[in-house]
């Protein structure tokens, strides 16, 4: 199998295909243009600068395309990067499918799907069960391929389903420890909480915010889908069941300044908010520590108040 | 015509019918119960305490009922109040319709309706025009009878329509001064911005928050109605027109900590937020200054950072 | 068995012994003194006012004493209370041991201790294991009888151990879901995180803050105990192991404004902070919802930004 | 007439005279010096970098001078800029008057002056009328030529008068809608509210803050002028009229953290604050959207919490 | 000499004359009126309630009057109070001059004046020296008799001069330790920094805010006096000396949210802000600790973030 | 004596030895590496960039080494810098001891030590006196050579002792002005307040944070030393004396968000916080103004809310 980005050691010469995740054209202080790339494959993401870019280069090397790279693996201030020797677009017969190079969730779709099914069965309330089935069916493919975010945590293909599944597993532990929590409501809310991202984001490759994503936002976008589902499924929108489920999604950011139009006023909504936060925090820390040497502090993490994290020495 | 609450002078004996707006049962420090009332009629609201309330009194004198009051008009720390001599429920043939005692907007419904029609005609964009007509028709009666809030500003029957109309008039001035503003969008957004309150609140008498009001909130409640309207009217929900209109409503609280799931990212949404704020501020100040003597400061206004306002002397 | 406080229905006459949890002497508006009590037994806490208290009453009915109460069970604005007919101190032979009336954790000490032992075994790192054993042994009795707080969450005898155990159970689920988390460190930190409360608080009856509690605080108080333990156990204080463990405790409030002198800079410290927060939140919500009727909102919870929580109807 | 900056299309070669608005000398990463320019003429402002600047270049091409430019019009990340081929100072007979190149308010002075006079007549209170006349007369020329700010909104010649006039027109609409507002006070306050900027700023060309501007600020600087005016006009400084007018100016930033030594405690002061904010916001959004393509988001606007604004497609 | 308030022990019967500092009429829960008093004399302030007040009592016992009191000295929740047996206005020949009962600064006027003169001589800069002399002369009597605040710190006759003098003494120590500080500027700023309070407040007895105090504030009020002084003394207002002195006063609250229209941008202004804060804090703590028992915490101090302070035991 | 950095005038050629305080390797936009240096000697610190650095250069010119520099003294945007012509490491016999080039406190160690001894004698309480002596003896050498911070204020050798001494001198003035302040407690707290920095920081040359510094912090590090001292000296840790002293140190940052685990609840702790703040502010302003021209504003100071400070003209 072909060597991937992080199979190369520091200072080793590289020769591989990768996906252009982002390509920003900038102007150097000497007036010429250069491209600031993020390349990726299954092994992760890496930065690189391409100096003195011609108009043709800019035209060729755009976001979402696969390229062939020769260069050298370097490390600069704890950030891995490539010193580029040469770039070219794939020739006929060479690897050219972006999906083959997108970082993916650590579990595969069929395995995740099986786990989800077990959770679906635990939703005993019929209203919630029907709505959840309807919407997961409607957005099935996107749910299992979209990332959970453009950057920060779970920004990989399948990240949305993977993040959702992690929360469900934590939720299971919570309902076992605290038997007064409504398991059906917590699971239904957890499954739908971020589903609006399949409308907010453009997809797993070269992920952007859609216009609806920017002007409406994923919280309200999925709320609207619940309302539509009620109409299709002939469920009374004014029923307590529907109001509770909508509240689970609307309140899951916890604080209004984080975009929830209401704060949690249900025990299960408060718990969902905590679990969402916990899983996101762990993924952000993991992402940063994966590229940190033992005995060092990671880069600062924007989503965690700009804190950096220490990776202990001799950790077994 | 019968004398109303504020027709009585301070220290004058009172004998009148009024509506019980709120009735809170509390326990006095001597252990007996008393009722803390707010009475109202068209002339305004006034507080009163009813001491040593029996269980029968508590049963009789509930929120939303009309009562006959004898007592004395007093003033206590700038707050008008009644010293109650006697309370009884109306006998047959005496006034008994709560709606006859609810404070009302300073303009009557038919006059406001006429003005609204003129604004409707200025919405040239067909998508927005259809949605606005559909929703105002659907909620016509509530729109013209509901208050704009439980307390604070515009807490009177017809307050919702009156507040909306005031904003439209200011919006007209803005579009005349700044000709690059999209008048249709600003008017459509202004008309719908608070319409969710007809679902959030219970009505003009003994106003309470509904369960949906508490757990979903008026901003998302009207957003959902726009989505439904699109389905009924066969309008494409993904069109830019619909997204822009939804953004107008979602962003109108300006800051996320005030309950908007998104901040304004459209010029017209930013303007709507300012005008909503301005009209609400003016009504709060007016409400407080109406009961303030010249040369004095009003009570502190919760919705304006607890500030009090000075009423100048000799103001002509 | 004798009937306890919450075995009585609303409006039922009461005749029972209970513990005086707090007794505040106040002056009524008529100038006489009264005592504002909180009584408690295993079934929970209840308020009561004792009017026209004599100096002898004030002397007799102090915090931490058992009393015999006759009265009536009432409910006032969602807060249960007792209307007192008569109070007297126990006669010889009547129940008189405060510890028999202190609310207790839902699990008994021996059961909790067994569970703790299982967790202790999972701490594979010898430094952490030794320090944890040393300190839990040193404060064994206090650890299993102290509350976790004076009020708010886990304010019952055994609350400290119970809160700690709940966190450990959640921590177990986290380490199963995220295999890169250091289980030994997370468990050791969790066990010690609030142990300083055995110095900060005065004990399970009539709980007060000690002078050290007020001027040093439980976070630094347990940090100091770790330092002492190192000296006794001949462990190098400058070793990474000790620094990491201290950081776990020092950072567990998450934000400096909540009293942590440092923010979390270790993945395990960040996780401990989340789990502590989650368990405390759940206990606060449970406490409030236990006294709330279905279909109603609970009282506002100070420790959760003053939010109130809805208890759904027909919850099975 | 000569072509102006924004008459050139993207990628078109340019040959024109313009004013140097700012000229910052910086050091490039290769160690040589370059000048970062903002050029302007009536059509707007544009950035440009001048590489490898000699000491003579730095001496020649300073803020406030007119230069002849040859270059190419480019666009870089939504920011228009010029690629400079050559710069030289005007030769004899070539355009050389900075005032001919300063961006100007969209209305000319005589038209604005006429409108102001109509507003002056509406100030019926003699105290306010005399003070306003005195100060506008004293600073007449500066008032009609100064910008309202160094950057952000209304940063063009005549911007101060234009901003003031916009507020007066909005104020007129407010007083028509709310007849209990004191028109004289609102107009007098609006006219004077930013007049201190004629002392705070250095003038319309190469605008800087004066020492008084930095250490005293425009709010207190105009307050001091009102005090002086009272002395010249023999008006009692302790009179309510004078105190009210001073309060209008002192409170117009609304919040103390924005530099008002007192918050608004007069209805008219609160309204003036809202209108000032509204007009400034609209001008900032207009400025950003003027250089934004349809269907795109503008650059982020510092004065509006860093938000960017969407320019809808197909806007007619 | 007559016994004063705090010469009486707890539970001792009292018989003395005192000044009514404040008299608030309130309505008891039984519907009758009572007066909530603060009495004072040189020994301090004490609260008392007067039950079942008649209209004549309310008329007689107003703020600013001397009364004869018989009653009992009590202590209630760390707050000293009087249980009133009887009140009457002084008869002819009995003490009746409010000034004889106002709490006073611990140093007398002549002693303070002498110290001030020494500081005046240290102001070597002629501009500052002249302005300071002019204004202290103009407001001499008020400066030495006014309090520094209505409540909180230095709320006693002569408090303004005493507070100013304390700051000057600290300023002297600062200039000795840091020889690069401009002593003249620091002293001049310190002397004038709170002088605006002689216009903001009504005087030493029954202290209220004036209308100017409320709508303009003491910071701007003294700034205006400096401007006037310049005109009388023929000093150039635009000179750096005057601008620096004005900045000292305008910036002395340190943060704009505390009412300074500009933050400190001069070293001496920053230092003055610190010293003002330090002296005010010490006086607030002293005031609270003076009435606290050893080994107890004081009441919470509003001006110090609601903190309470511990008074150590055995303090010699 | 050899010329030092700031003995050279702007544009003068330089030839001197200096210490490399920091050396950051960065990548230029042309892809080559450069080193961004801060050099220092007794006269102060200065920046410089070294272009096109080879791997050998990077290896040679590291933090903490002495180098020989030839270059030119320049000034760039109020920041002094060196244009480097050549760098080399010292040859045998040339100056090579970093300690000879570290900026030092303006007072020498023996003079400071003498002053400290006088303060030690003023600590009359035996508990505090013993602890202070024990700890100052234990860390004597570090106390007199460490800086008080890595950057910001007192970042020079001996800065810790110098900062401590400045606070003691201010504390002396405070205890003279306010005779009710406990001098022993204030002095003892002042001496120890920052002593934890000898563990938090690595030393006077190439100062870094240690792992304990990052994960525990200087406040808790010195608290732990006090606890240890009590054990060695056989002092009761639970005594009020020890609790008070620990509180002095723990609370000295004033606000919890600045890292104090408790806020000040002792008068002396509040005063220590103020004096610490005052001395740090003065040193930061002095540092910035020392490199500012008269009539100009300094650079912005991060530790003072980003404010810049004006240096008046003609200051004698």
Automatic annotation (TrEMBL), chains A, B, C, D, E, F:
<keyword id="KW-0540">Nuclease</keyword>
<keyword id="KW-0269">Exonuclease</keyword>
<dbReference type="InterPro" id="IPR003607">
    <property type="entry name" value="HD/PDEase_dom"/>
</dbReference>
<dbReference type="GO" id="GO:0004527">
    <property type="term" value="F:exonuclease activity"/>
</dbReference>
<dbReference type="InterPro" id="IPR050798">
    <property type="entry name" value="YhaM_exoribonuc/phosphodiest"/>
</dbReference>
<dbReference type="Pfam" id="PF01966">
    <property type="entry name" value="HD"/>
</dbReference>
<dbReference type="GO" id="GO:0031125">
    <property type="term" value="P:rRNA 3'-end processing"/>
</dbReference>
<dbReference type="InterPro" id="IPR006674">
    <property type="entry name" value="HD_domain"/>
</dbReference>
<dbReference type="GO" id="GO:0003676">
    <property type="term" value="F:nucleic acid binding"/>
</dbReference>
<dbReference type="InterPro" id="IPR004365">
    <property type="entry name" value="NA-bd_OB_tRNA"/>
</dbReference>
<feature type="domain" description="HD">
    <location>
        <begin position="160"/>
        <end position="281"/>
    </location>
</feature>
<dbReference type="Pfam" id="PF01336">
    <property type="entry name" value="tRNA_anti-codon"/>
</dbReference>
<dbReference type="InterPro" id="IPR012340">
    <property type="entry name" value="NA-bd_OB-fold"/>
</dbReference>
<keyword id="KW-0378">Hydrolase</keyword>
<protein>
    <submittedName>
        <fullName>CMP-binding factor</fullName>
    </submittedName>
</protein>
């Amino acid at each position: 199998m072909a060597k991937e980005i992080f199979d190369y050691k520091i200072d080793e010469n590289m020769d591989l295909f990768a996906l252009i995740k982002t390509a920003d054209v900038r102007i150097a202080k000497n007036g010429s243009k250069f491209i600031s790339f993020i390349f990726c494959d299954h092994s992760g993401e890496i930065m690189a600068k391409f100096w003195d870019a011609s108009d043709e280069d800019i035209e060729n090397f755009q976001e979402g395309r696969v390229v062939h790279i020769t260069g050298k693996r370097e490390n600069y201030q704890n950030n891995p990067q490539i010193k580029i020797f040469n770039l070219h677009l794939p020739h006929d017969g060479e690897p050219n499918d972006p999906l083959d190079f997108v970082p993916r969730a650590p579990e595969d779709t069929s395995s995740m799907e099986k786990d989800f099914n077990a959770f679906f069965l635990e939703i005993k309330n019929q209203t919630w069960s029907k709505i959840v089935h309807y919407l997961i069916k409607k957005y099935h493919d996107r749910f299992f391929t979209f990332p959970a975010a453009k950057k920060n945590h779970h920004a990989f293909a399948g990240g949305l389903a993977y993040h959702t599944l992690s929360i469900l597993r934590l939720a299971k532990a919570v309902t076992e420890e605290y038997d007064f929590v409504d398991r059906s409501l917590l699971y239904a809310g957890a499954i739908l909480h971020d589903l609006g991202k399949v409308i907010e984001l453009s997809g797993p490759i070269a992920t952007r915010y859609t216009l609806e994503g920017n002007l409406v936002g994923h919280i309200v976008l999925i709320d609207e889908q619940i309302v539509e589902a009620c109409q299709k499924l002939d469920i009374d929108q004014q029923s307590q069941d529907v109001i509770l489920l909508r509240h689970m999604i609307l309140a899951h950011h916890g604080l209004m300044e984080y975009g929830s139009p209401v704060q949690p006023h249900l025990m299960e909504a408060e718990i969902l908010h905590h679990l969402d936060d916990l899983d996101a925090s762990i993924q952000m820390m993991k992402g940063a520590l994966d590229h940190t040497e033992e005995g060092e502090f990671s880069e600062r993490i924007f989503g965690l108040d700009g804190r950096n994290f220490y990776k202990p020495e001799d950790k077994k």
